[in-house]
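Could you help me review a protein record that somebody else here produced? This is what I was given.
***
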Amino acid sequence: MASCAAARMFAYNATLCACDPGYYYHLSSGNGTGSCAPMPGGGWGDWKVGAVGAPRNQSLYFLAPVLPIDAVRRLTQSQAVLLEAALAALLSWLAFCAAARFAGRDPRGERRLFRARYWISRFDCLFDNSHWARDQQVLRKRKTELGGTCSVASLILFTGLLTVLLYQAIKRRSIEMHRVKPANAPDLLSFVNDLEFHITTISGMSCAQAVAPSTFAMGTPGYMDFRLVSLPTMFTYSCANTSQGPSITLKCNGCRMPPRDHFVSWQFVDLPGQPAAAVGFQFNLTARQHGNDKHVSFVSGTMNSDGYTDDGKLRTFRGPDSNVLKIQLFPQIYNKLGNLRLLQPLVQDFTQGSAFSDVGSLNASLQNPSDGVVNTTLYISYLSDYIVEISNESVVGPVSVIASIGGLYAFSVAICLCLMSQCEARIKKLRDEDTRMLKILSKRRARRNWDKVRKFVMYTWGPGYPDPTDRSGQQPEGSTVDSLHRTLHKRREPIRQATSDANRPNRVPADMGAIDIERAGEAKQPSSSR
């Protein structure tokens, strides 16, 4: 460190600089200079415990900078969204019907909203036999505007509730059951997992200051089963430098679950110009069945001194006392995934080691060679007394779903039927609205047909034909109407004569006999005169 003029820095040994308690020296990526940074996050709120599951789909994560994918996924998977959509559709339909009702009043039936009212009445498919009927009258189908409104409203409500029911049946068709059974030696030996322990010491240190462990302890200290075992026989050790400090990794491939606990310790020491000091620990522990990379159980989080003290002071870990991170692994059998056997890691406790919360004590520790160390111990405890079996049990059957669908249909129809009956009982005008609407449509249809006849007559016999809409009833003498009647009369007379003669028998009428007698008398007179 070149200068101690930066914020949160103090000088020690007259030439070296160090950060205040709770801060660590962080190198910035731009110009290579550094500053004292606080602990990133921390506390119990940053912890995550993951259950077994398939890997997350990364196909849509390129939209993450623009669109919050997780928020959209949580929003679309909610039942409240489906209910709100159904309610919005129902209110929109009722608002449209109300607007058509009040704005579509047209005695001549020429407005578009009046036509919309008519088509709304044609939608009356549920309540056409349930309208108001007076006593001693035959029940008949009546398709009214109110009936069409209530029919579509009941269908919208039923569709929305049915969607929510199907979503719930698909989403929660089964529940996860956990059963605990006593552990047996052959059952414990069947757990073969790949374990990985990643512990990052948040500090300004590097892997050059790490002293790698060569052995680990097994068993309970002070008992006959306690022993020291070479580290490579079970774990693979590695260290990597990160932006937040050195990250220690311990891997165990194909590990069987032993009945005894394990202790693995490592430490960081002072180097010239690089004191051994830390402000917290970040951990990520994973376990997966050997040969199966699809499912994994994990626990991750950040650990500092704030979660274990009540004074709220920031501390820096340094000194001979070890910081112990206790981890528990308990066996779980997932029957729903082909008897998948996983060890679930959990962080049970953190024992704080040597730490300093004021500048004076930290300055004195940095000048004391015996305090130039940061000890860390990983305590792995196996809960081998019981095994948790996880299975899914179905709680929704086809009969219950069909019964629920029938109940939803009866519920939606009953609500709209009650609404319609109350409106027709209190507003008498609604009882015969179908008759009034049909009369308007009949008048409009008759007017349209009469206009067609008038145009045909005017086009055929000329513009002298009077307007049929003229209701005076007077027609001028010698008008086109008279000539039309005479023409039709002349054309029809021969047809009637021919038709009547063809149907009569061959006989001489009385008048025709008189005409023949007169003609014979006239013929005899000249002969007598001669």
In short: Residues 54-64, 491-520, 523-530 have pLDDT under 50 and may be disordered. The radius of gyration is 50 Å.
